[in-house]
């Protein structure tokens, strides 16, 4: 990992949490060989997972500290530019994932993004923006345009090219990526019948009322998805015992 003046213990703990999130996204089927996730370190830096399939990132395998402004460090994947642009423009964001959710991908080839048809879809009201270009993001100008399209939404879908999800925490980012995919699953199911039975799309007021974080909504989804990871504190304590 590139060395900085940050406290080593703080970086190590954030690195562990990023690894858990990365493997969790992969186990949930939200990423395959491609994808990456990161967490903010401070106003000017974030830590991105190792540049390899997230499900294969090993226990203790270090990520890289990346500047919010400036060139990407050696060995960091080109589309991490997307993370940079989000952290730069949205100080409320603490974690970002670039992932490949399969149902979201299928829906995007119809130039559609998930509608708010059930609870998980309401977290993206008034609607998930679509970046209508299947090309990989290989320049700062492309990344800036994608994130401009995203605006203040929790996600942006890239036609035939996966999605980017951002949230205030790693746990929320993972949960929202799962919500996005579940919303796409439901939308695809409904599309098959919609000519006979119009879908009941939730309006903006209903979305705002439903998209709650009370009742440990995010925490419970995180617990469900991340359970069994070898670097969760409970798992580490169990192994030590």
From TrEMBL:
The keyword S-adenosyl-L-methionine does not apply. Residues 16-188 form the Class II aldolase/adducin N-terminal domain. It comes from the Bacteria. Pfam families: Aldolase_II (PF00596). InterPro entries: Aldolase_class_II_sugar_metab (IPR050197), Aldolase_II/adducin_N (IPR001303), Aldolase_II/adducin_N_sf (IPR036409). Signal peptide: none annotated. Gene3D superfamilies: Class II aldolase/adducin N-terminal domain. Keywords: Lyase, Metal-binding. The keyword Lyase applies. PANTHER family: 3-OXO-TETRONATE 4-PHOSPHATE DECARBOXYLASE-RELATED (PTHR22789:SF0), FUCULOSE PHOSPHATE ALDOLASE (PTHR22789). This is Class II aldolase/adducin family protein.
């Amino acid at each position: 990992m590139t060395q900085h003046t940050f406290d080593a213990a703080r970086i190590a703990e954030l690195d562990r949490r990023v690894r858990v999130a990365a493997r969790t996204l992969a186990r949930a089927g939200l990423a395959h060989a491609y994808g990456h996730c990161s967490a903010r370190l401070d106003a000017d830096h974030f830590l991105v997972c190792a540049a390899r399939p997230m499900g294969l990132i090993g226990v203790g395998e270090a990520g890289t500290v990346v500047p919010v402004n400036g060139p990407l460090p050696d060995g960091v994947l080109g589309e991490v530019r997307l993370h940079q642009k989000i952290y730069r423009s949205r100080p409320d964001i603490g974690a970002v994932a670039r992932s490949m959710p399969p149902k979201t991908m299928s829906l995007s080839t119809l130039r559609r993004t998930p509608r708010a048809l059930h609870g998980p879809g309401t977290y993206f009201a008034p609607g998930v923006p679509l970046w209508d270009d299947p090309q990989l993001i290989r320049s700062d100008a492309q990344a800036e345009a994608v994130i401009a399209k995203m605006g203040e939404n929790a996600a942006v879908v890239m036609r035939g090219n996966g999605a980017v999800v951002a949230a205030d925490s790693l746990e929320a980012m993972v949960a929202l990526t799962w919500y996005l995919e579940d919303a796409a699953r439901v939308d695809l199911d409904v599309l098959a019948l919609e000519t006979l039975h119009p879908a009941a799309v939730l309006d903006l007021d209903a979305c705002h009322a439903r998209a709650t974080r009370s009742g440990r909504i995010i925490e419970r989804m995180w617990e469900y998805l991340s359970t069994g990871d070898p670097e969760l504190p409970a798992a580490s304590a169990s192994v030590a015992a």
